[in-house]
Design a protein that fits this description.
Strand content: 25-35%
Strand order of the largest sheet: 2-1-5-6-7
Shape: globular
Bound molecules: zinc ion
Order of helices and strands: HEEEEEEEEEE
Number of strands: 10
Helix content: 10-25%
Radius of gyration: 17 Å
Structural class: alpha+beta
Number of domains: 1
Distance between the termini: 44 Å
Oligomer: single chain
Length: 131
């Protein structure tokens, strides 16, 4: 009986991993939610300062900070800050930098994944907390 339970546990875990990978592929771009008032960051849509947090597309994650723009996460055109303008992304939307202290980011440093808890990034590396 114990063996059967172990098998079930392994199967459930395998299913969870597949679902996570599929979700990551579906999303294409990375997004996070930012409060317009206090600049607090959330991984899931929620309210802050009595208003809905704005969904922002993550352009870059570096040194515990994320550079985000107001594009939809799936926007394929926007890949970063427009060098000619400096404060706007390639789509002409406002860009801002937010502090990720307390959040988890990929140890690789190249992924744009932002998480609420420790775990594995879509690339297979560990997510580490920003201190
Ligand atoms: Zn707030
Ligand atoms: Zn953009
Ligand atoms: Zn865009
Ligand atoms: Zn990663």
């Amino acid at each position: 009986m114990r063996k059967v339970l172990a098998c079930v546990a392994v199967l459930l875990f395998a299913c969870a991993v597949v679902v996570m990978a599929e979700e990551a592929a579906k999303a294409k771009g990375a997004e996070c939610f930012v409060c317009a008032k206090c600049a607090k960051v959330a991984v899931k849509a929620t309210k802050c300062c009595e208003q809905d947090m704005a969904a922002m597309k993550v352009l870059e994650v570096k040194e515990g900070k994320a550079t985000v723009c107001a594009c939809a996460a799936g926007c394929a055109k926007c890949k970063g800050i427009d060098p000619a303008v400096g404060t706007k992304c390639e789509c002409g939307k406002d860009v801002r930098m937010v502090d990720l202290t307390g959040k988890f980011v990929c140890a690789d440093g190249k992924c744009l994944a932002i998480g609420d808890a420790a775990g594995k990034c879509g690339c297979g590396k560990d997510m580490v907390q920003v201190k």
